[in-house]
Write a structure and sequence with these properties.
- The complex is a heterodimer of chains A (196) and B (290).
- With 196 residues, chain A is an alpha/beta fold.
- Chain A is built from six helices and ten strands.
- Chain A is globular.
- Chain B folds into two domains: 4-18 and 63-147 and 275-289, 60s Ribosomal Protein L30, Chain: A, CATH 3.30.1330; 149-270, no CATH class.
- In chain B, helix 1 packs across helix 4 and helix 2 runs antiparallel to helix 3.
- The longest helix of chain B has 20 residues, at 40-59.
- Chain B has helices at residues 4-20, 24-36, 40-59, 84-101, 148-151, 164-179, 197-206, 219-232, and strands spanning 69-77, 127-133, 139-146, 155-159, 187-194, 248-256, 263-270, 277-281, 286-289.
- Chain B has a five-stranded mixed sheet with strand order 2-1-3-8-9. Chain B has a four-stranded mixed sheet with strand order 4-7-5-6.
- Chain B is 39% helix and 22% strand.
- Classes of the chains: A alpha/beta (196), B alpha+beta (290).
Chain lengths: 196, 290
């Protein structure tokens, strides 16, 4: 299992050499997006409008950071991943239409997203849930914020990160670490219940 | 008479402690889990968790950006002079102040319009569970900041009484397996048995307040906790659902009497942060509980 440092924007070949279980550290700008931001992006695209930010080769971070405004400037207090499965229904289209290369989150995503990721050369990177002070340390500064009217957690924050990680490659090239674990869990559950 | 100002200060400080420093018993359980883990990926997750706890303490920032919704448990002794309405107002004002000063993430929205109130206050929020104790000369305030990742994995079953304890175990195991990595394992699993549907869930949540490693006073429930913990940790969900031994840090069970025709089982999970903080406010002093 390799340890890889990558710069954003990510190239197809950067992503193609990643396998599940590898550890990744990212540098560059990542964009936070949760349920409402994904809906917002799709609404924009539906109207044929251009988004105010560029996600080609880009990275979406499923995260609603805790921010503090001091002297008119936004600073990150802490920022860890949120549950990715909430975005299952919205993620594939966002990846396809915007050329997203990596999604950072926790808990994994469903088979449809996995297929869209395989087709579009995108990877899913698992961050440690709750390790939000640790991740904030890797955020150098906050760029712009978009759609702040959605509230602090749901807005899109452009975060300039350096060596953001450790991120575990959990979905890549049609393989999912979660699917492997869940298969094993289902087997274990069955035998434990049989012996109750 | 305990003043409202005093109570407000205590509420803010409780919130600060709860979101910045996981309780000592939780940290100890996480360290044990790390030592016990053999898979490289699981160890990476637990190491990140332990590093994060140290860093949050050093920088005095919350361990997790999801600082939860404000849930409170208040016990009022009968031998202390306090206005119950002051307690309610102190909790509301304390939450607004904590949101600004710590800061907490404004998480509370209207369930229909989804509009964020900006200060974690809305209809029925913060929520306070009041109990009254005879003879005691203090007000005990506990805060349980509850994040959504774990709360969204809550479950209720109205089992048939004939399904018995075996049915309870099966439901708990299935629920934890289904939750997978979503509640941020290793979790603390609260189980409420009996009562009514709402009571079972309320008991499950209240069960999360007991420090890890303290034994259940009921011997049957104590044995059930040990057995369920062992079996859950054989599932293989592991830290963050990426596989491993540590799926839960503890299972904690509370019970209440129920109808002869029902067996309600409530499940409420708490993420690895195990966030909680409690204090007793006496007439002339405050005692911070572990």
């Amino acid at each position: 299992m390799a340890e890889v440092r990558l710069k954003i924007p990510l190239r197809k070949e950067d992503v193609e050499r990643l396998s599940v279980g590898d550890t990744v550290y990212l540098s560059g700008v990542v964009y936070t997006a949760r349920d409402e931001a994904h809906e917002g992006m799709l609404k924009f695209l539906g109207k044929g409008k251009k988004l105010p930010f560029n996600l080609s080769g880009g990275v979406i971070f499923h995260c609603g950071p805790l921010m503090k405004q001091e002297k008119g400037k936004w600073n990150v207090v802490c920022a860890g991943p949120t549950t990715s499965s909430r975005m299952n229904k919205l993620q594939s289209e966002v990846i396809e239409k915007l050329g997203v290369r990596a999604v950072i989150g926790k808990g994994g995503m469903d088979d449809n997203v996995m297929k869209a990721m395989e087709k579009n050369k995108t990877v899913y990177l698992a961050a440690t849930g709750g390790a939000a002070a640790l991740m904030a340390e890797k955020i150098r500064n906050v760029g712009r914020v978009y759609w702040l009217d959605l509230g602090m957690p749901e807005a899109v924050w452009a975060l300039n990160v350096h060596d953001l990680g450790p991120l575990t490659v959990a979905i890549a090239k049609g393989k999912s670490l979660y699917a492997n674990v869940n298969r094993a869990v289902a087997g274990n559950l069955k035998s434990i219940i049989q012996n109750l | 008479m305990v003043s409202k100002e005093r109570l407000t200060e205590v509420v803010v400080e409780l919130f600060r402690r709860a979101v910045i420093q996981p309780p000592v018993d939780v940290v100890r359980a996480l360290q044990d889990a790390y030592r016990n883990e053999t898979s490289e990926i699981a160890r990476t997750q637990l190491k990140a968790i332990l590093d994060n706890i140290k860093l949050a303490r050093k920088k005095e920032v919350p361990v997790c950006q999801d600082t939860g919704i404000p849930l409170f448990y208040v016990t009022v002794g009968s031998n202390i002079s306090v206005d119950v309405n002051d307690i309610h107002e102190a909790v509301v004002e304390g939450v607004a102040k904590a949101t600004k000063t710590i800061p907490l993430r404004p998480n509370v929205v209207d369930p229909v319009s989804r509009k964020n109130s900006g200060n974690n206050i809305a209809d029925g929020m913060p929520h306070i569970d009041f109990t009254f104790l005879p003879e005691k000369d203090y007000v005990e305030i506990t805060v349980l900041p509850k994040g959504a990742g774990s709360e969204n994995m809550s479950a209720l079953a109205m089992l048939k009484p004939s399904e018995g304890v075996k049915g309870v175990k099966k439901f708990v195991l299935e629920t934890v397996a289904r939750a997978s990595g979503n509640p941020c394992p290793p979790t603390i699993i609260g189980v409420g048995l009996g009562g009514s549907s709402d009571l079972a869930l309320a008991l499950a949540k209240k069960a999360l307040l007991r420090p890890i490693g303290t034994k259940n006073r009921d011997r049957t429930l104590a044995a059930l906790e040990v057995e369920l913990k062992e079996k859950i940790n054989q599932l293989g969900v592991g830290p963050m659902g990426l596989g491993g031994r540590a799926t839960c840090l503890a299972v904690q069970v509370e019970k209440a009497g129920c109808h002869t025709a029902s067996l309600p089982v409530g499940i409420n999970m708490q993420c690895w942060t195990g966030r909680r903080a409690a204090a007793r406010v006496f007439k002339n002093k405050v005692e911070w509980l572990k």
